[in-house]
């Protein structure tokens, strides 16, 4: 069959007649997935009061979601390749809706954390399937570039909108509403998807790499548990060292399994593509920086500056507005400067905004101390999400679209879980040291949060260094068009 006939067949199969409407539905689902990693931040104080949760448990309200999300994304990508992207997408959205309702009804910490874990597992099914559908719906290079630009922007907007909507909903309707909001939106997505996207043909029924999935998920859980516990028991305690050792062994066994599996969860040769490798490393670092940022910023505003939930959410409008505004022009900037330079510049601006934010005092004025950093962070983060997503899918064949999509999301969510564990621990250590030194509570908390912002800035700077040193200058322009050509041929550079 000629390439033109293949493209026509693919277009018919995936319902490209309504592809832009389909993109809205898919992006909306992705928005919910990213939103739920951050929307709970503003609600944490209210949630803690109702369910009697201590500060250490609060971070696990976020971690319980992002850990299974990140840990199971690779398996979710493979499942979507095997059983059909649309089918796994609908199953994932259904599970996400049910789990969201269950979280809202939670009457104990155990119930809430369990339901959050189910939310994360469902997100791990729908997210890679959704991005795979996007890449297969849009075969024209320019259309795909625009679609991926929208997709990357949605990811960034979801992180910021979570803080904004979390404040409005918590203040108006209570903390359960931040989870209930997923239900009607999810049901709408489930209802319209069969009409917008035709059922795609499942891939080969090869064996699933369940041992690999178990090893990488358990290894990441052990690592985050080790990092999260260091503030209480210390870096050299038997518990910390044991968990760290178990994590190293599990992650090493994952690499061993992947090298020998007939149908590996992640074909390790994909990382020979420096664009894919660097793109995923950058998304890992972005995930760590943004999760730590919004967790610390939400608590800082409410516990130090004494903003109520509504005010804390509304103060994120400049950041969200800057992100939305820049997301619309990033694809144009990429066409001019290339993905490499656009991504590096965005990461450095993101880092500059975080460093600026770290200087805010315990009696900060929003206009004087927070507005400027918020705008800089929004612009940098918007550019980084769009360009980072595009770089991370460069050069991957269409037959592995689900795997590549899962890998991008995995990098971001695992980065979020590990980054939050590291930054929250550093913040707690710094705060305790300042309190023991005689500093008052607001100033000590502010000093601890400053370490979070500086640590997040370090993540962004490391990401920029990776992009500038690993990505070839020859890929500075036309990355998207090249990736589509390579992907459609099914080759890896």
From TrEMBL:
InterPro entries, per database record: EmrB-like, MFS, MFS_dom, MFS_trans_sf
Q: List locations, semicolon-separated.
A: Cell membrane
Q: What is its main location?
A: membrane
Membrane topology term: Multi-pass membrane protein
**Sample GO molecular function, one term:** transmembrane transporter activity
User: What's in the GO CC field?
Assistant: plasma membrane
Pfam families (UniProt xref):
MFS_1
Gene3D superfamilies membership: MFS general substrate transporter like domains (1.20.1250.20), Multidrug resistance protein D (1.20.1720.10)
Q: Which UniProt keywords apply?
A: Cell membrane, Membrane, Transmembrane, Transmembrane helix, Transport
Q: TM segments?
A: 20-45, 57-76, 88-111, 117-138, 150-173, 179-198, 210-229, 235-257, 277-301, 313-334, 341-360, 366-387, 407-429, 449-471
- Segments forming domain Major facilitator superfamily (MFS) profile: 22-475
* NCBIfam families referenced in this protein's UniProt entry, alphabetically: efflux_EmrB
Protein name (record): DHA2 family efflux MFS transporter permease subunit
Q: Source organism lineage?
A: Bacteria, Bacillati, Bacillota, Bacilli, Bacillales
């Amino acid at each position: 069959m000629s390439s033109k006939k293949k493209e026509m067949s693919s277009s018919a199969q995936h319902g490209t007649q309504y592809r832009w409407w389909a993109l809205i539905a898919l992006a909306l689902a992705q928005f919910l997935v990213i939103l739920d990693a951050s929307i709970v931040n503003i609600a944490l104080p209210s949630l803690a009061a109702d369910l009697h949760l201590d500060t250490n448990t609060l971070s696990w309200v976020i971690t319980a979601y992002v850990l299974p999300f990140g840990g199971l994304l690779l398996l979710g990508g493979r499942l979507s390749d095997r059983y059909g992207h649309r089918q796994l997408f609908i199953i994932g959205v259904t599970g996400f809706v049910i789990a969201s309702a269950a979280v809202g009804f939670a009457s104990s910490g155990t119930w809430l954390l369990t339901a959050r874990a189910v939310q994360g597992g469902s997100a791990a099914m729908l997210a890679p399937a959704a991005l795979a559908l996007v890449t297969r719906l849009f075969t024209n290079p320019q259309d795909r570039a625009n679609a991926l630009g929208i997709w990357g922007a949605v990811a960034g907007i979801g992180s910021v909108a979570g803080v904004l909507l979390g404040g409005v909903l918590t203040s108006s309707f209570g903390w359960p509403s931040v989870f209930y909001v997923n239900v009607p939106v999810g049901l709408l997505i489930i209802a319209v998807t069969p009409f917008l996207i035709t059922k795609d043909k499942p891939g080969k029924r090869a064996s699933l790499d369940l041992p690999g999935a178990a090893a990488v998920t358990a290894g990441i859980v052990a690592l985050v548990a080790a990092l999260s516990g260091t503030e209480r028991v210390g870096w050299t305690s038997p518990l910390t060292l044991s968990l760290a050792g178990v994590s190293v062994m599990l992650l090493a066994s994952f690499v061993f399994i992947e090298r020998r599996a007939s149908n590996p969860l992640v074909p390790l040769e994909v990382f020979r593509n420096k664009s894919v490798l660097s793109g995923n490393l950058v998304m890992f670092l972005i995930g760590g920086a943004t999760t730590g940022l919004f967790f610390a910023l939400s608590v800082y505003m409410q516990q130090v500056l004494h903003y109520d939930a509504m005010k804390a959410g509304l103060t994120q409008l400049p950041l969200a507005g800057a992100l939305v505004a820049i997301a619309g022009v990033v694809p144009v900037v990429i066409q001019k400067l290339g993905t490499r330079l656009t991504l590096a510049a965005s990461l450095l601006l993101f880092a500059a905004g975080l460093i600026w934010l770290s200087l805010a005092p315990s009696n900060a004025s929003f206009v004087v101390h927070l507005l400027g950093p918020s705008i800089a962070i929004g612009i940098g983060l918007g550019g980084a999400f769009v360009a980072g997503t595009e770089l991370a899918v460069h050069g991957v064949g269409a037959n592995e679209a689900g795997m590549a999509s899962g890998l991008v999301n995995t990098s971001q969510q695992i980065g979020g879980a590990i980054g939050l564990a590291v930054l929250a621990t550093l913040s707690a250590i710094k705060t305790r040291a300042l309190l023991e030194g005689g500093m008052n509570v607001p100033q000590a908390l502010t000093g601890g949060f400053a370490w979070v912002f500086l640590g997040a800035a370090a993540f962004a700077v490391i990401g920029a260094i990776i992009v500038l040193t690993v990505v070839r200058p020859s890929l500075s322009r036309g990355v998207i068009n090249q990736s589509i050509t390579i992907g459609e041929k099914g080759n890896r550079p």
